[in-house]
Automatic annotation (TrEMBL):
The lineage of its organism: Bacteria, Bacillati, Bacillota, Tissierellia, Sedimentibacter. This is FIST C-domain domain-containing protein. Residues 1-72 form the FIST C-domain domain.
């Protein structure tokens, strides 16, 4: 797990845009889970993350939470623990 601060910040807007592209319909809202470890590392530059998300979300409402201990599964269906993770979900209207 290695990334620069600039990469951590820029990846939030990039990831949200990639998530939007995968949706078959326009999202009505987003639920964005951002790793607490990433948040701690970004520290006083967190306002730049908010700007990235706002630019990518446009007029679509969103909520962001910062969590620790991100668990999920990969395409193989095996549970895994990630680090420095972003987990973005779009909800349709």
């Amino acid at each position: 797990m290695e990334s620069s601060l600039d990469e951590l910040i820029a990846s939030t807007g990039k990831t949200l845009n990639e998530s939007k592209e995968k949706l078959s319909v326009n999202a009505g809202a987003f639920h964005l889970v951002h790793c607490g470890g990433r948040r701690a590392g970004i520290d006083s530059r967190i306002d730049e993350v908010a700007k990235e998300i706002k630019a990518a979300a446009g007029d679509i409402p969103f909520i962001v939470e910062f969590t620790f201990g991100e668990y999920g599964y990969e395409q193989d269906g095996i549970n895994t623990c990630g680090g420095l993770m972003l987990s973005f979900t779009g909800f349709s209207k």
